[in-house]
Design a protein that fits this description.
219 residues; two-stranded parallel sheet; 17% helix; eleven-stranded mixed β-sheet; alpha+beta; 2 helices
Length: 219
């Protein structure tokens, strides 16, 4: 806001009209107009070091506040269908459907939804609308190997109180003849499923404990 730049005033007004949180900076308190005095400003001495020291906590607050707003507006629920077991001579594969429901809980349009990520162990393969989901394998600092699957949404923004459902097919090899393990009539898979909803206002992480039993007759 230093120097009362007209372009900056216009941009701040536009951002406020869109409901965006802003970090307002100035080198001179006298440059703050009367209709912005009720907004917190970061006042610094003009040096990069002073700006960095004062702006960092402000950005941390903005990040946390944006996350809280998005979480209040968008809720995610998770449901799993029965697991189906496909038995072959040398391999048993299990498959189940993961159903995600994303709901806009607010009375305003949701932020833009850019992608969904489903995080599993590296044993799983996921597909959405008959297309295999791209994935990236990595290892966490605790040594756990994970697979991050990308799901592209059909709907980019949700109207007030609207929802979107995604049905994702999840498949895993449960037994092979060369594994040295005993084959079974029924298998069970359980663990922690992580889902990340990437929006224009930040990433919303969710965790769910799931357990799926796989049988040739899945009911």
């Amino acid at each position: 806001m230093t120097g009362k730049n007209a372009n900056v005033f216009y941009e701040v007004g536009y951002a406020h009209a869109k409901g965006k949180l802003c970090a307002l900076l100035t080198q001179n308190v006298s440059d703050i107009p009367f209709d912005l005095k009720h907004h917190t400003h970061v006042v610094y001495d003009g040096s990069a070091s002073d700006l960095s020291a004062k702006l960092k906590p402000k950005l941390e607050w903005l990040k946390g506040e944006t996350q809280k707003r998005a979480e209040k507006r968008l809720s995610v629920s998770c449901a799993t269908g029965s697991g189906y077991l496909e038995r072959g001579q040398h391999m048993h594969n299990g498959e189940f459907t993961l159903e995600l429901t994303l709901r806009n809980e607010s009375d305003a349009r949701s932020p833009e939804i850019e992608a969904y990520y489903v995080v599993t162990s590296q044993a799983w393969n996921l597909s959405y609308q008959n297309t295999e989901c791209p994935y990236d394998d990595s290892e966490r600092s605790d040594g756990k190997k994970i697979r991050k699957h990308l799901v592209n949404p059909n709907i980019r923004r949700l109207a007030p109180s609207a929802f979107e459902k995604l049905k994702i097919d999840c498949r895993k090899t449960l037994w092979t003849s060369w594994s040295g393990e005993e084959q079974s009539e029924v298998y069970s898979a359980k663990g922690l499923l992580e889902i990340e909803v990437v929006t224009s206002e930040g990433t919303l992480p969710h965790e769910y404990s799931i357990q799926v039993d796989f049988d040739e007759i899945p009911f």
